[in-house]
Amino acid sequence: MPTINVQLFEGRTIEQKRAFVKAVTEATVETLGSSAESVDIILTEVKREHWATGGKLWSDAS
């Protein structure tokens, strides 16, 4: 039973999330040979002010 955790910036539409989890599920089934029903995907939305790269908050990026 694969469980896939994805962290992403908040702001995606529900349609984008549906398309994403469908595509990831299909790729998981194809590559790992698991059933779609056994694939769990957890989306964690993160505010840009809570994510930094290279010592700089994404909320500060121009």
TrEMBL record:
Kindly state which keywords UniProt assigns to this record, in alphabetical order. Answer: Isomerase
Catalytic residues per the record?
A: P2 (proton acceptor)
**What are the protein's GO molecular function terms?**
isomerase activity
Where the record annotates domain 4-oxalocrotonate tautomerase-like, the positions are 2-60
UniProt EC number? 5.3.2.-
Domain of life (superkingdom): Bacteria
A Pfam family this protein belongs to?
Tautomerase
**What is the similarity comment for this entry?**
Belongs to the 4-oxalocrotonate tautomerase family.
* Name of the protein in question: Tautomerase
